[in-house]
Amino acid sequence: FLSQVDSTNAGRVLASDAAVFLKKSGLTDLVLGKIWDLADTDGKGILNKQEFFVALRLVACAQNGLDVSLSSLNLPVPPPRFTDTSSPLLLSGTASSDLPWAVKLEDKVKYDAIFDSLNPVNGLLSGDKVKPVLLNSKLPVDILGRVWELSDIDRDGMLDRDEFAVAMFLVYCALEKEPVPMSLPAALVPPSKRKPLSVPGAMPLLPSATKESHQSLPPVGILAAKTPLTQ
């Protein structure tokens, strides 16, 4: 990974090069910003070899739902995954299309009933329709923002039936005091959203990782409860 961003073997990685490379992890800009701040210890905008390894390790932590903090550095995690076919690590592991979906069938039936009750248009719910349901959970707005960001897998500002199920699953996990992951675990990506890469046995982490997320709603914007909500 270091040789991909430090082609001249200078032993240092510039912020601009690191940003382009780390974006391939599929993590949100918010999380990547936090990772950079922790790795770039003296704020000089350049990472040395050791600091770059810290950044990679934190990416791996975030991809596996662990807290992005220096205390996570010693936890056992698989290597980070990047959506780049030249990455050696995309060739390892089983295809995520073989993973069973984390949302159980009986729960999916319940989530579908809530979805239908919200009057979806063309099989999609807008942020405005999902917002009251999320706020109803009484979870902190920053947590709900992350739930929205993770569940809007194709970054179109709307949730379809499967994405809504992911949102509900994450809300119920949070209500059970389980931490909401920083990036969507492969097992939570709905089978309908899993795009196998052309590499045999490859393991795509996030189908939307290669798309820019400009169209996605700002996570807090969708949930800012300044206006009175009408059911």
UniProtKB/TrEMBL annotation:
Molecular function, one GO term: cadherin binding
All copies of domain EH, residue ranges: 1-83, 107-195
Carries keyword Iron?
no
Its BP terms in the Gene Ontology are: endocytosis; endosomal transport
Could you tell me which residue ranges the EF-hand domain spans? 27-62, 139-174
Per UniProt, the keywords (alphabetical) are: Calcium, Metal-binding
Keyword Zinc assigned to the entry: answer is: no
Q: Which GO terms describe its cellular component?
A: clathrin coat of coated pit
Q: Which InterPro entries match?
A: EF-hand-dom_pair, EF_Hand_1_Ca_BS, EF_hand_dom, EH_dom
Annotated PANTHER family:
EH DOMAIN (PTHR11216), EPIDERMAL GROWTH FACTOR RECEPTOR SUBSTRATE 15 (PTHR11216:SF54)
What's the protein here called?
EPS15 factor
Source organism per entry reads: Cisticola juncidis
